[in-house]
Write a structure and sequence with these properties.
This protein has 113 residues and is mainly alpha-helical. It is built from 5 helices and 2 strands; from the N terminus they run αββαααα.
């Protein structure tokens, strides 16, 4: 019986909850959640703590922070080495017909003499 499981987890069983993972997720969501904030000029704006922290950074630090965040959302590109050597054996129609008939070229040469 191919593919018959005899033990282990049942199909569709969810993963166990990790309390630390849950805390990190809730903390991250709160950090990025927009809230109404009173700015220095007295106006109210809707910004997250992340937005405020990014604005406080110098331009070069802001770019570095954005690049580091992008690493979590885009896959890393890897170089691929390929060896493209093709051995092509070109057969003429006559060669293909001889192969289908089962005749060798040697037999054909003997018939010509």
């Amino acid at each position: 019986m191919k593919g018959m499981k005899t033990g282990g987890r049942k199909k569709g069983t969810p993963n166990k909850e990790n309390p630390l993972k849950g805390f990190i997720k809730s903390h991250s969501l709160a950090y990025f959640e927009p809230k109404e904030v009173k700015c220095d000029d007295g106006k109210k704006r809707t910004l997250s703590h992340f937005d405020l922290d990014i604005q406080a950074l110098a331009p070069d630090d802001r770019v570095n922070a954005e690049l580091r965040l992008l690493e979590f959302h885009t896959p890393k590109m890897k170089a691929i080495d390929m060896d493209v050597n093709a051995n092509v054996n070109v057969l003429t129609i006559e060669d293909k017909l001889r192969a289908l008939c089962g005749k060798d070229e040697e037999n054909d040469n003997d018939d010509d003499e």
